[in-house]
Amino acid sequence: MSASGGTKAIVAALGANLAIAVSKFVAFAFSGSSSMLAEGVHSVADSGNQFLLLVGGKKAQREATPQHPFGYGRERYIYAFLVSIVLFSVGGMFAIYEGYEKIKHPHEIEHWYWPVGVLVFAIIAEGFSFRTAIKESNQLRGTLSWSQFIRRAKAPELPVVLLEDFGALIGLVLALGGVGLALLTGDGIWDGIGTLLIGILLVLIALVLAAETKSLLLGEAAGTEEVRKIEAAVVDGDTVTGIIHMRTLHLGPEELLVAAKIAVQHDDTAAEVAAAINAAEARIRASVPIARVIYLEPDIYSEAEAAKGADREATPGGPDTHPAGH
Question: What is the pTM of this model?
Answer without folding.
Answer: 0.73
